[in-house]
Amino acid sequence: MPRLLTLISVLAAGTIVAVAGPARPAAAGPGGEGAAFVWSDLLSPGSDPHTPSPTYQFNSTSPQAAVNTVRHLPGPAGHYEVRFPGLGLSGPAGFGVAHVTAYGGDSTACSVTAITRHVELNDTAIEVSCFSPSGQDADSLFTASLTTVRTSGGGRPMAYMIATPSGLVGDFNSTGAWNSVTREATGSYVVRLPNLGAFGGHAQVTAMGARTRCKVVGWGPEGATQVVRVLCSGVDGNRRDSSFMFTYVEGLDVLGRPPGGHDSAYAWADQPSAGLYRPRPSYQFDNGGNLAATAGRFGPGDYVMRFADADLSRGNVQVTAYGWGNEYCGVVGWLVGDGIRVRCFDAAGAPVDAFYDVAFTGPPR
After folding, report:
1. What is the pLDDT of residues 294-341, one digit of tens each?
2. Closest CA to 94 of 154, 53, 135, 149
3. Do the strands 284-286 and 302-306 form a parallel or antiparallel pair, or are they unpaired?
4. Paired residues of 151 in beta bridges
5. How many helices (H) and strands (E) does the chain have?
6. 155 part of a folded domain
7. C-alpha closest to that of 195 among 174, 167, 211, 166
8. C-alpha angle 292/100/265, rounded to 5°?
9. Which residues on adjacent β-strands are paired with residue 40?
10. Residue 275's domain spans which residues?
């Protein structure tokens, strides 16, 4: 007789008004805490789980083995399930947070449509939906990451959440304070992170909903609180209410792991039309330093970000567009010497210059 599994899911949902948790949850149960990433190199449909390249995947519960899997779900194109074994965080602390980015350089975009915790199997699965600028389901390569850490690496500033109409799921603030999200207008949200106010750091956001894209508008301190604005839109470029997944860090990677034990970097590309420049030091990080990144532009919407210290021969990249427009961005690829290639598009899928945030995280050294 098959085992009855305890399934706890968060599905994509609609309007967020003002949400925060009713009480700080108790500590998580044993096991399930950690971080993982994967590059999905599965394009064609197939019913069996596929284990992607070990060079571009990692799971802290099995750091020497390629254990994360990707499955092309039955039905329409562009729907995938990613499983992260060992990260089914038990107890009321929640799911952690996931991010996805379309890979390959075309105008396809990807979002998360569900996150499910399988308690008995001790794993977490995310469902990913990829779509064309016109909103058609489209098969695509993508990158994905998941963190369920409940203590930030080295005690560095960090917060994450899944913002839904019913509340914040997996809500975490490294200071123990309460985060909150308020809807200002259709598709426009204000995230408040108490005790994390600073000019600097890095923000990452992923839409949670089919045919939806979310981006960061900006962030900065209001007193001791870090205030981040998030904008979501449909494929037509018009603002649209959406759930979303969000991470903020300062001086560590978006998985929240301790600096020094692995390669990690991030940067805010703040000069969309510049041919070559150095991003602002407060908004970049490269293995402990903040003066090494170099950004470049090859043409409309075609960019590169180079980090002097991070080893880009492995690892994972996440990209988020930035600003009030309807631009969105994806990752083309990353290589030692070549840097991280990024392309950005307007709502119709045409290349366009745009601000963006890019984050890299590598496996243990």
Report:
1. 999 999 999 999 999 899 999 999 999 999 999 999 999 999 888 999
2. 149
3. unpaired
4. none
5. 0, 27
6. no
7. 174
8. 15
9. 142
10. 262-364
For residue 47, what are the CA distances in angstroms to 117, 130, 257, 342? 21, 18, 33, 31
C-alpha angle with apex 229: 224 to 18, nearest 5 degrees?
Answer: 85
From the list 340, 182, 302, 315, the residue with the least C-alpha distance to 254 is 315
- pTM above the 0.85 mark? yes
- Tell which residue, 208, 246, 213, has the closest CA to residue 227: 246
Tokens describing residue 93 = 């602390």
Nearest CA to 320 out of 217, 235, 178, 166 is that of: 217
Contact 34, 61 (CB under 8 A): yes
List, for residues 81-117, the tens digit of each pLDDT value.
999 999 876 544 557 899 999 999 999 999 999 998 8
The verdict on residue 144 lying in a domain is: no
The domain total for the chain is: 1
Cα(129)–Cα(211) distance, rounded to whole angstroms?
8
**pLDDT tens track, the chain, 365 positions:** 233 334 456 776 555 655 554 444 433 444 568 999 999 987 776 667 899 999 999 999 999 899 999 999 988 999 999 999 998 765 445 578 999 999 999 999 999 999 988 877 788 999 999 999 999 999 999 999 999 998 999 899 999 999 988 778 878 999 999 999 999 999 999 999 999 999 999 999 999 999 999 999 999 999 999 999 999 999 999 999 999 999 999 999 999 987 778 889 999 999 999 999 999 999 999 987 777 799 999 999 999 999 998 999 999 999 999 999 999 999 999 998 889 999 999 999 999 999 999 999 998 87
Tokens, residue 244: 């979303």
**Distance between CA atoms of residues 215 and 320, nearest Å:** 6
The answer to the question of residue 63 being in a domain is: no
Burial of 45 (0-12, 13-18, 19+ CB in 10 A): middle
Distance from C-alpha of 230 to C-alpha of 208, rounded to nearest angstrom: 13
Any domain includes 41: no
How far is Cα 342 from Cα 326, in angstroms, rounded to an integer?
A: 17
Q: Do residues 292 and 264 make contact, with C-beta atoms less than 8 angstroms apart? A: no
* Through-space distance between the first and last CA atoms of the chain, rounded to whole angstroms: 43
